[in-house]
Amino acid sequence: VSRVESSVLHGLLLFAAATLLLSAFMTYVICSRHYNLHHISFFRICAIGYLFNSISLITLNVGKSFAALGWMPQVIVNSHASVRIIHFLLFFVRTGELHTTVFTALNRASAILMPTRYLQ
């Protein structure tokens, strides 16, 4: 791995770590009983989306970035089973992210087209 590729991969790993921390914090806030957001459908969809994004970041970094930087044992890198597992996880996560996006759009569209009126 060249110097440029190595620095780009290290930058991506730092970005992924920051994103994972933010995602974990947001999931904690949504699921916390203190804030009472877990009953609202939009926030449930967001929490599921954060879970899919976390799995995606972990899979991409462990499966691709760590292997490119030489941080994984050669047995795992050369194994066909690990490649298949990584590709399955990436396909599964991308499908989940797509569904999360569609459900978020439907949630917002239904909120606009059929607003709920609350009595004061």
UniProtKB/TrEMBL annotation:
Name of the molecule in the record: G protein-coupled receptor
Q: Mind giving the lineage of the organism this protein is from?
A: Eukaryota, Metazoa, Ecdysozoa, Nematoda, Chromadorea
Top-rank taxon, per record = Eukaryota
Q: List membrane-spanning regions.
A: 12-30, 42-63
Keyword terms: Membrane, Transmembrane, Transmembrane helix
